[in-house]
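Something for you to look into today, if you have time. What I am after is a single protein written out in full by you. I want to see for myself how the chain folds. Could you add the entry underneath, on a fresh line?
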Amino acid sequence: MQLPFTHAEFFEVFAAYNAAVWAVAAGLWLLTLAAVLRLFRGGYKPSREVTALLVVHWAWAAVAYHAALFTRINPAAWLFAGLFGVQAFLFVWCGIVHDRLRFRVRQSARHRLAVVLVGYALGYPLINLLFGEYPRVPTFGVPCPTTILTVGFLLAAEAVPWTLIIVPVLWSFIGGSAAVLFGVTADLALPLAGVLLLAVTGLRTYNSLYDLSHPV
């Protein structure tokens, strides 16, 4: 595959990101951790709060990473920024305006996978720090951990419109290519997360259509 940028240029984008907005990325990580603890410890289920967090993640990745930095080396990043912006809007429309997302934590295989993926997204920067050299590594708030985090939350949602999974599934394969092309170890989980989200959403749709008694 012929790319419009080199291996070194790819990682220099992350170096620029970490140098410019490390404090914001750290704050976003702490905000995400707080929301995760509130959701997964039981009790109050802040559905709109979690949705708003996802809006922030996707809008931030669209502007701070794709539009501001990745466009310097890849013209296609403008398209990626647009896709991430659309995903942020879809979360606003479906999860905040129409309040169609309900997050629950239960003792099921789906919810255990949700916990694993959300935890993995929070640990994403550390994984890359173990295999790379700071600041030339992906950390938090960039597209790939945002996608993994989103898949985890969507697996914990009671019902997910198909419109909400299109961009995360698409990016799971686009971003997942970095694991192979650039050796970003933490991105190995991306294609698996995308396939998992697609499979679970499809199974839930099938169950809904046929009114089965054991929803996924």
